[in-house]
Design goal:
Chain lengths: 188, 188
DNA sequence: CAAATGACTGTTTTAGTATTATAGTCATAA
DNA sequence: TTATGACTATAATACTAAAACAGTCATTTG
């Protein structure tokens, strides 16, 4: 049996259930059914362990988003499908939810770092799609990184932040708004 | 001499210098050269005192932004002038800077509430301008609240958040980008 | 007697300290 | 050569005593 994978699984389970701070290396070793020292043979410290797990989660996320894109026609539809898949992914994976809560409650620096790089990963992913859309002349030429960054932020703003003070916006409404502002523009 | 104003000035000074948490009502009374009980004749508690100060700061902010709008032609230019004035206002008023730091460091709930309502104030202000621009047919018809919210967020994203991981964007560049995305749109 | 005050009080924060828990190491064992 | 858990230095926590504080109110003042 692959000890490294056992350790990763054990850590993923514990991080998801108890969070980063409240997970001890001894706990991970116990769940993985190995000695504590063994964990350190594969991961030089706790931080590396978390980063490895989040990294592979990011890979999975890319795949899920790509699957959702397949079924969609048109740039906005594909963008909406991918982004929605990503947000759902984040909400449905206990680890991401737990880490977000932990960042809010304790501000653990490593958790902040990890979630930050996950966000950047998302932006890089979208930027690739924007670049493709420019090549296919589906949209005008523009800076792909900035465009991806702003579209992602706008999606988050609409789905998550707006409803902090107003009534929620449906996924369809959000896609329509992004089409209005980003694609069509407000000029009369 | 107006004791109420003396107290407000004293509190504004102390909040700016030491923050909300580290300011004591005794301190405020001492600076205002009144007894502690006197402070409570005008403000039933510490929270009300802070809210009053931030409220009048919001009024001042509106006036400053309006002044900057006067000198500008076109919707994007006026929007840029107003938003830039608002951001500068926030950066140049020690109280806002101090409160932001305090929210980051301690998460003081009342400070969060106050800064939140200040942000909403900004959005209401912009929404008014958007409504006006729709009436004057400078832009297409749209929901003024959502549009104001998203334009404000995009401006913040460009000027503040983008540079957390990339090289900063100048004020001119930000205005040009908002014109590109919001006004002209990305359709080819 | 209306406006102002600061001593007073119950509660919260802080500072100091003892105790426990934990990350990471390493000598030993399988 | 791989695996282990006792070990250690450091960091988190729990506890307590002391101090600071927001808000009150009986007394004072103009």
């Amino acid at each position: 049996m692959d000890k490294q994978q056992q350790i990763i699984n054990a850590a993923a389970q514990s991080f998801s259930q108890y969070g980063y701070k409240a997970t001890t290396m001894e706990q991970v070793a116990k769940i993985a059914q190995v000695g504590k020292g063994t964990v350190y043979l594969y991961f030089s410290n706790k931080e590396k362990l978390l980063k490895e797990i989040v990294r592979s989660l990011a890979v999975e996320m890319r795949m899920v988003a790509d699957q959702h894109i397949q079924a969609s026609e048109g740039f906005v539809e594909r963008f909406d499908a991918a982004l929605y898949a990503i947000l759902q992914f984040r909400e449905q994976h206990d680890l991401m939810v737990k880490l977000s809560l932990e960042l809010n409650d304790f501000g653990t620096p490593i958790v902040k770092e990890v979630l930050d790089s996950f966000e950047q990963e998302i932006c890089v992913y979208i930027a690739d799609k924007v670049r493709l859309a420019i090549e296919k002349e589906e949209i005008r030429s523009c800076d792909p990184e900035i465009t991806a960054f702003l579209m992602y932020k706008m999606y988050i703003n609409l789905i998550h932040d707006w409803q902090k003070h107003h009534s929620p916006i449906s996924r369809e409404r959000a896609a329509a708004l992004i089409r209005l502002y980003f694609i069509e523009g407000l000029q009369p």
